[in-house]
Structures are given as structure tokens and as C-alpha cells.
Amino acid sequence: MRTSHTVVAGIAAAMAAAVSLTGCSGNKTSAPASSSKSGSAAGAPSSAPSSTAPGPDYGGLLIKASDIDAPEPFTAGPQVQNPNGQLGIATTFSTQDGGHVIKDTIQVLADPGAATNALNAAKTAQGGIIKNPTTDPASVGAGSTMLSGNAPDNSKGVAVLLFTEGKGFVTLEFDGPVDTLPPLDFVNGVGGKQDAAVKKGLGG
User: Fold this and answer.
1) Which of 42, 103, 129, 201 is the most exposed place for a label (fewest CB within 10 A)?
2) 113 and 31, same structural domain?
3) Which domain holds residue 135?
4) Does 192 lie in the same domain as 91?
């Protein structure tokens, strides 16, 4: 009887050991597989930015907040790559209280002719931003024009400076209190610095 119990115990122990080794072996085999899957998933986000924001980074074309010479300091917001699906860059500058805002958008076209076409199209599209806009010539870049007036809902005063520099098309929108527009020399001053930055950045 003692021998029989010993043999049975030995067999049971051997079976338990075999099951334990099989389980460990299974875990070791499955672990790399799961880590491999997580590795490929982790790698996916790293390729996402290139597909969502293709093309060169034109952030260097933008002026800085320190380039805006005004009684109240302006702060730059985040840069937006390829605004509205168009190759280029954009940002927004604002005073601390948000009472004055400058929206700076630079579109990079195929050539100067395409930039001029974009400017001409934009002139007729300002009706949705300015009610009965007044048009004045400006002295920045090529084909520069300033359109100004109140917003359609009379919530603010708006001045929009449009001009081209080489294949770059620039839109500078100045928002402030209703019935109050920025001086033309201030608009030209900011526009002139933006024009110089685009000319330098695009090698014009």
C-alpha cells in the first residue's frame, strides 16, 4: 500500500509540474505576441501627424507678438498649420482683455499669379465679415487693399488688409470695438512687418 501511494503521488506531482510548465510556456509565447501588437499600435500615432498636416511647416513666415507696436501688448495664440485645408499657416494675436484681436493668415500658392487670383477672390468675400465695407488702398506688398466697417451683427469693428508677396497671399483681420477701426498707419505697420517676413521666408 505504501508503494502504491508513493507511485500515485509521484505521478500526480509530475503531471502538476507538466501542467505548470505548459502554462508558463503558454504565457511566455503569448506575451511577446501581445507586446508586439501594442508596439504596432503605439507606432501608429507617430505617423498620424504627417498624414494630417502634410507639407512644409510655414510657421517661420509669421510675425511675432513683439512686432506689433501698440499701446497694449498682444499675445500670440497657437499656430494653425494649413488653415481651412490650404497650404500655409495662421495664428491669432490678442490683448489681455480680448478687446483687440489680429487674425493673421498666410496662404502659400503655386505661383504669384495664383496668389493674385486668391486675393481678388477674397475681396468679394468680405461681405460675410464686414457690413457694407469701405475700401481703401494700402501700401503693403502687391495689390494691397484694406476693407473696413462693422461686423454684420454690429458686435465689433473690423478692418481686413489683403496683399500678396510672391506666391504668398496674406490676410490680416483687425477686430476691435464697434464703430472703432485701427488707424491706417498701424495697419500698414503690422502689414509691412508681415510682408517682410513672408518675403524673407519664401525667398522673394
Assistant:
1) 42
2) no
3) 59-201
4) yes
* pLDDT tens column, 79-125: 999 998 999 999 999 999 999 999 999 999 999 999 999 999 998 88
Q: Give me the sign of the Cα torsion angle 46, 50, 51, 52.
A: positive
26 HSE (CA, 13 A, CB side): 6
- Could you read off the pLDDT of 121-165 as tens digits, one per residue? 998 888 789 998 999 888 999 999 999 999 999 999 999 999 999
Give the sign of the dihedral formed by CA 143, CA 92, CA 188, CA 204.
negative
Judgement on whether residues 12 and 93 belong to the same structural domain of the protein: no
DSSP string, 87-98: SEEEEEEE-TTS
The Cα 83–Cα 75 span in angstroms is 20
* Residue 54 confidence (pLDDT): 61
Query: Rounded to an integer, what distance in angstroms lies between the CA atom of residue 66 and that of residue 73?
Result: 8
Other C-beta atoms within 10 Å of 184: how many? 16
Q: Cα dist. 17→4, 6, 27 in Å? A: 20, 16, 15
The position carrying cell 481678388 is 120
Q: What radius of gyration do the chain's Cα atoms show? A: 32
d(C-alpha 87, C-alpha 169), whole Å: 11
Asked if residue 39 and residue 135 are part of one domain, the reply reads no
Residue at which a domain ends, from 18, 34, 52? 52
